[in-house]
Amino acid sequence: MKGKIIGGTLAAVVIASPMGAYYEGVFPVGYADPVGIPTDCVGDTHGAKVGVQRFTFEECLRRYDERLQANWDNGLANCIQQDVTVTQGAALISFADNAGIGATCGSTMVRMINAGVSADTWCQQMKRWTKARLVGVTIELPGLVKRRAAETNMCLGRIG
User: Fold this and answer.
1) pLDDT for residue 160 is more than 70
2) What is the pLDDT of residues 57-75, one digit of tens each?
3) Which of 50, 61, 87, 149 has the most neighbouring CB atoms within 10 Å?
């Protein structure tokens, strides 16, 4: 059984998109992220080159929304077997866009969702994903701490 977002994927994307744009920023010109990965637009690493502009600001936002939609349609919907609310879906879409679909689908959080564990419990799992590897050392990134707290609140329906 495939889970769905009660209220629709589009509604979840509309809720998730500003969060990602806020925490990632919108950069039509490529830059190196905190761990040195070439990135542009809204956290897009596909084909990004530091110092090179490939898109306009508006194109970056449109591409980001399309990517968030695809995160559910082509990724999360294949591994999440329970229905989720629109705010839970938005939080999962935002989280997976940042952490990766594979990592999200293989996570304890998704196993908890699929086992029917209460959202009050599984949403808290997002807060565990605050570290990145930098030159062989794992560090906690303050921006990820803030983002995960916001995603957890969104997951629990505390938005606005």
Assistant:
1) no
2) 999 999 999 999 999 999 9
3) 87
The tally of domains found in the chain comes to 1
Q: What percent of the chain has pLDDT over 90?
A: 91
Mean pLDDT score across all residues of the chain: 94
| Residue located via tokens 């979840």 | 12
Distance CA 64, CA 139 (A): 27
Q: Write out the residue range of the structural domain in which residue 55 sits.
A: 5-155
According to the model, what pLDDT value does residue 142 have?
94
Residue matched to tokens 């989280």: 95
Q: Which of 34, 32, 66 is nearest to 52 (CA)?
A: 32
Strands 38-41 and 27-32: antiparallel
Instruction: Tell whether 136 is covered by a domain.
Output: yes
Tell me, what amino acid is at 114?
N
Domain membership flag for residue 160: no
CA 2 → CA 12, 23, 52, 79, distances in Å? Answer: 17, 30, 40, 7
104 Cβ partners below 8 Å, 6+ apart? Answer: 75, 76, 79, 92, 95, 96, 110
CB 2 within 8 A of CB 13: no
